[in-house]
């Protein structure tokens, strides 16, 4: 497990127990778009509430399976920001149904799904533990289902919140990885001082993946393949930082 995935799992579980014990508190934290001017905090608090145990379990399983690898890839700060931005975006898109009461972390977790599918589009996800589906196909299917459900108003599900989670996650990830025109000009005009050197490659080669957590080991192996297939110059700043973090802790001495 990774730090923020663990904290979010605990926070959602604790809030479920607290709000089911004190229903008045739950209503004070529910998001109703039309009431936003008098309850602005509900843009965030709603994503820590759940209608029932199955609702909570579905969302937490998604966070548990997809979150750790993505947190390793993005870093804890960017992962938490992605989660919160996706959740708030889900609330904002729910203004399509201004009187509906919205609860659940689905929009935030859908943002995590989206991030996972962007970085590992061909990774197989097993629906019900049986049916293998590429991650990007799962996201496309969920988008189509949410669009259909949203415009047919069926099932009492916050479909527009799900769509908002996807949209918010996509916009945040694209924005966070952007390069300004000035940065692009500097990159063309001079070598990037953060680019991998021969010494960097040697330090990364000495990392012992067998001593790493399975999630981190999978990410390390992905980066090794990327270096081999595309060259070290294709590593992003976050990917280089990931390798640097483990070089000192897991390198043979």
Describe the structure.
There is one protein chain. By secondary structure, the protein is mainly alpha-helical. The protein has two domains: 3-176, Rhomboid-like (Rhomboid-like fold, Up-down Bundle), CATH 1.20.1540.10; 193-250, no CATH class. It contains twelve helices and two strands. It has helices spanning 3-21, 23-29, 42-45, 53-74, 76-93, 106-119, 135-152, 159-176, 181-189, 198-205, 214-230, 237-250; strands at 124-127, 131-134. It has a two-stranded antiparallel ribbon with strand order 1-2. Helix 1 (3-21) runs antiparallel to helix 4 (53-74) and helix 6 (106-119) packs across helix 8 (159-176). The model has no long low-confidence stretch (mean pLDDT 85).
Give the SSE map.
Blueprint: H1 3-21, H2 23-29, H3 42-45, H4 53-74, H5 76-93, H6 106-119, E1 124-127, E2 131-134, H7 135-152, H8 159-176, H9 181-189, H10 198-205, H11 214-230, H12 237-250
Antiparallel strand pairs: 1-2
Helix pairs in contact: 1-2, 1-4, 4-5, 4-6, 4-11, 5-6, 5-8, 6-7, 6-8, 7-8, 10-12
